[in-house]
Amino acid sequence: MELSAAARRILGLPPDDRVKQEATRLAPPEIFKKVLYVLSQPKYAAPSLESIDVFEYDGGKRYFESRLFPIHAPSQDEKLFGYLAIDVTERIEIEHALKASEEKYSNYIKNAPYAVFIIDEQGRFLEANHAITTITGYAVEALLHMSFKDITPPAAFSDNAHRWKELHNAGHLNIEINYVHKSGLTRWWIIDAVKLSTKRYLCFASDTTNKKQAETELLHLSYHDYLTGLFNRRFFEMELKRFDIPRCLPLSVFFGDINGVKFVNDTFGHAEGDRLIIDCAKTINDCCRVGDTVARVGGDEFGIIMPKTDSETALDILTKIRDALSALDSKANNGKYAHSVSLGFGIKRSEDEDVLQILHIAEGYMYQRKLLEHNSSHSAIIASIKAAMIEKDHDTGKHAERLVELSKVIAKALKLSQADQDRLELLATLHDIGKVGISDYILTKPGKLSIEEWAEMKRHPEIGYRIAISTPELIPVAESILCHHERWDGGGYPQGLMGEKIPLLARILAIVDAYDAMTHDRPYQKAIPSAEAIAEITLKAGTQFDPQLVRIILDQKLTTALKAK
Question: Is the pTM of this model over 0.70?
Answer without folding.
Answer: no
